[in-house]
Amino acid sequence: MFNFKSEEVDKFIKLNMVTGERKQNGLGLTLESGLLIGAQNSNFDAPFSFNFLVNYTIATTNMFGIGSGVEFLGSSFSPVFIEYRKLFSERKTTPFIYFRGGALIHMGDDNNDNPDSYPQYYQPTNYKGGFSLTAGTGISWMKEGYEICLSFAYRYARTSYEENAYNNVNFTYLNNYNRLELKLGFRF
Prior knowledge:
- This protein is mainly beta.
- The chain has a single domain, classed as Porin.
- It is built from no helices and nine strands.
- An eight-stranded antiparallel beta barrel has the order 1-2-3-4-5-7-8-9.
- The two termini are about 40 Å apart.
């Protein structure tokens, strides 16, 4: 460590926390995964979620995106959604808020054809997707050419399925998921 007298210093330079690494405008790709944490009395305590997004940045702090992926909510579903994300600053590390809206599309077989479960009573069949809404916050860290994001959000999703009772009466069940979404993502 060196100490200098003020008359020996030519100039002072203030460290600028704003980085030129963030895109001002342009396309990006985000990969994220995490858990949908729910109530302990739920059949699915913490379903896993994996998503990818194609997004477009406008004026460094506004991002619009479209995405999809895979989630397991009793059966496999593919979310399809649009997203808006607002960064609070242009710094290397900054908080953000985001909103998503879209639908869940069932990806698995519509019927349960398991031969070991005869008779086919009280077996979930005919899964259907529904709509999904997300609102959350997070923090973003810029690293050499990519961004790391940790996000926390409220997630609402709706699905349904049918069960055949022993008297050949079909019952339809609606699942409403109110979850804490915890995700880690990488944006390139």
